[in-house]
């Protein structure tokens, strides 16, 4: 098998030579001619039933060739039999919950995780009872109707790591879904550690340029079929133009992650030494839960850094206001560096008590490090830190 960086460049492009093109074409058709009714009916049944392909795509909600190419590419990068792409990461998670609902209504969830994922699970909108547990409680909390175990590692926003092998062992015959958005397949392959579903918000590192919203689930084909059926029925499809942009981002994925990770390591060390910073959350510093896992189940500490300001919410707001090169915005994984306030933005929908219980304090900022020159990033960030008004008082939660 070729090495990762080579696969990232060539995956999903096998048919291009046969097509006589160099760049993947974009198929924007919403419908496809059916000249042979019997063959068309057979194709319809196959696609609605969850098959990846059929003789005729019939309708874009059922299949699109441009989307199929990027699915093939990501299945190759995660080394799974299949991948199913959706219009967003949340659509992807929703599809898994709906598909698993046929096998039970109880899900075990390890916090912290992305705020909207937390909110969806806690809301019961998908007819699922979500029980939030520590990773060490999974075996004892399993029930006869437990249909899924969900973990995010590295976790959003504190970068805590979860031992995937241990979770899979504790889950027994219950499938495990790992949200691996922060790690990307460059740094982590959960399926190789026993996870049944690997979820990515492809909006982030996989797309990599802040111009596409997408979500993918990488899994075996037998698990992908119900997801395709859900997608066909609910219309959670990925638009082919978005699929094209996502596919275009993959050849540089390894390069982007390697550069951003190198920058993150430097910034984490400098932040740790800064007097305005109370704590830095970064696996490479050993300051997150199960930090040693970044050398075993991962291949590096990653590109995200979180840090807590000693003076709390007002100081965090000041930094967000003062940065000029860094972009104060939600999301992550872009080529430029983004900084945001989890308690006030991405995790606003999580109850305050649950936020605080999992380290999401008023003074916490999460930074997605980009590929700029690290000294330029530090000049901007350190200037913003120094600009925090001297009169700002420490929050009780940061004290």
Structure description:
The protein is of the alpha/beta class and 399 residues long. It has two domains: 4-27 and 64-250, Type I PLP-dependent aspartate aminotransferase-like (Major domain) (Aspartate Aminotransferase, domain 2, 3-Layer(aba) Sandwich); 253-387, Alpha-Beta Complex (Aspartate Aminotransferase, domain 1). Helices cover 37% and strands 14% of the residues. The chain contains 15 helices and twelve strands. The protein has helices at 4-10, 16-19, 37-48, 65-78, 89-100, 115-123, 138-141, 164-171, 184-187, 221-234, 240-249, 253-272, 312-322, 352-357, 374-386; strands at residues 82-86, 106-110, 129-133, 146-152, 176-179, 197-201, 215-219, 277-281, 304-309, 327-328, 338-340, 364-368. The protein has a seven-stranded mixed beta sheet with strand order 1-7-6-5-4-2-3, sandwiched between helices. A five-stranded mixed beta sheet has the order 8-9-12-11-10. Helix 4 packs parallel to helix 11 (240-249), helix 12 packs parallel to helix 15 (374-386) and helix 13 (312-322) packs across helix 15 (374-386). The longest helix has 20 residues, at 253-272. The chain is globular, with a radius of gyration of 22 Å. The N and C termini lie far apart (52 Å). The model has no long low-confidence stretch (mean pLDDT 96). GO terms for molecular function: cystathionine gamma-lyase activity; pyridoxal phosphate binding; transaminase activity. It holds the Pfam family Cys_Met_Meta_PP.
